[in-house]
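In this section we walk through a basic example: taking a raw amino acid sequence and producing a predicted 3D structure, encoded as discrete structure tokens. The instruction is simple. Fold the sequence below.
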Amino acid sequence: MTIWHYKGELVQREGVIATYRFFPDHVMAPAISGLFRIDLESFTAEIVEPANAEARGLVSTDERCVSALAHKIRKTVQASEDATVVYFIA
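The resulting token sequence is shown next.
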């Protein structure tokens, strides 16, 4: 069984655009990270600095990680909760 341990940390926010550092496996590979931006109104996300997770030996891909974190950020923001650090574990 594979367990995903994704983490996103808010780096900066300018209006409705937030930049997060993402960790495709913050438990087993905490030094591997990238950056993505997310629009906090439409919740569309784009990777601006890839972590290259799969090429670095991780099971996850950057796209899968960012998609899961964007979903978690959307749920957190819509619940009016703090989205400074988000985790997605599945």
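Looking at the output, two observations stand out. The first strand starts at residue 5 and ends at 14. Residues 55 and 61 are 9 Å apart (CA to CA). In the next section we compare this with other chains.
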